[in-house]
Every structure is written in structure tokens, then in C-alpha cells.
Amino acid sequence: MQRGIALFAALTCFNAPAEEVRPAVKLASPRITEASGIAASPRHPGALWIVNDSGAGPELHLVGEDGADRGSVALRNINNRDWEDLASFEWKGRPYLLVADTGDNASKHEMCSLVVVAEPSVGKDGRVLAGNVAAAWRIDFRYEDGPRDCESVAVDPAAGKILLLSKRTDPPALYELPLVPGTRAPQTAKRIGETRAERPGGTLLPFGNQPTGMDVSPDAARAAIVTYNGWFLVVRGEGETWSAAFARGAVWQGPHLLPQAESIAFSRDGSEVFLTSEGKHPKLLRFPVAESR
Question: pTM for the complete prediction?
Fold first, then answer.
């Protein structure tokens, strides 16, 4: 017991959370039990989309920044093998969500999939209108160097690219796919680099440095990464490639102290990040994004 108390004290004292923009809230929806991906709504201020991990239905859950439950919508004819991340973006003037069915704990699946849906309609009361939605397009793919477990997927719509960061490799490997392949044929995720996302002073948690979520800022100048230890930023210079930016390593921003954080998303203006965790009625945190650190 004393060892456990000492470990908790070390975590909370050495890793005092960065100042939050607003106090944490709890997600009210009883349907969100294993939040594995979060994304800010492209068109509805104050709203966030969330997906659950494997074992849950193929649903998108809408919540308010205050944690309020705004309803759920199912993806038609789509399975949730192991959904691990969610991204929002605009393409040719229309808002979309990308669901990443990329979890693979044993690294045994030859193929993974990314499902893109038009953002579901939301009523004047802020709740989801449609009962289910169909996929706009789907990308089945394999990694060029064999199966990978991946929980960190983000979209850079200006470049027309999808970024994927492996979880269990050391160091984490960065892959790239086209956002709109132009064919239904399976794609190959190309390895374009690697990175480090490590807590200063070393990790106190098992697997604490493994990336569990990622997002790209609306201006595509930053990528945010969450691990079990805390959250990080990758800052990209003007004209710089993502591979070069990630190669410098992700910069530690601070701890979150969530029990199993697997979701991170930028706000629509890029000034904040939202984080949440697996579990029933988890906390929803938000932290400011500094200009540089």
C-alpha cells in the first residue's frame, strides 16, 4: 500500500497538470464507455464527436464541450473491429469524419480500414438528427512493413494525406496514406519516418510512452499526440514535411492524470486540445495550446 501511495505521490507531484482553460467535466452519455477517439465538429461550435473501442457498436456519439449527451448515430453496414481514433476535416467545402479501425494488439491483421462519413446532421437543439449514416468512402490498407497496432490517426486535408503513428514499435513509426485514393483497391501505408514522445525523466507507467491518439491542427502547423503519460506537440515549420517535423521528436506539454487516455483533438480554432479517457462517464479535459514551448 505504501509503495502505491508513494508512486501516486510521485506522479501527482512531479507531474502537476498544466493549467486548464476550464475545469474538467464528465461525459454524461451512458453509451460512451471506452472512448478511443475524439474530434471537434467541423460545423457545429461547442460540439465533439467520440467513438468507442472494440466491443462497442459502430456508432458516433455527439457531446457538448460541457459533457452533455447530444445523441448517437450508427454507421450503416460498418463493423467496429477495433476503432482506435477519430478525425474531423473539411474536403471540397464539406465536413467529414474519419473513423480509424486500426487497432491490432497482436499485430496480426494483414488489412485495416479507414471509414469516411459526411458529418451527420445536427438539429437546432444541438442533437443528432439521423439514426444512421452511410460511408462516403472507405480505405482498406496494409502497412508496407507488416501488421502494426495503431491508435493514432490524423488527417491533413490541405496535403490530401492521412498520418498514422504506430503504438507498440520503439520508436513509434510514422506512416502516410492518401486521403482520397481514387480507387477501391487496397492501399499501402508508406513509412515516412519515426518520432519520440517521451515524458521527461522517464516513464513511471507501464507502456507510458506509447502513442494512443493524435490530431492535426486546423492550420496543419501542429500535431498533438497523447500517451498514457501525458500529451505532446509536434510543431511543423513553414514548408516543412511531416516526416521532418516528427523526426525532431514530440515536445512534452504536460500530464493529464487520466486513467487510460486514448483520445486527443484540437479545438476548431486550434487554440486548445481536448482529452478524454476510457471508462464510464470519463472526464473531458481541455488544455491551452501555447504558441511555442
Answer: 0.92
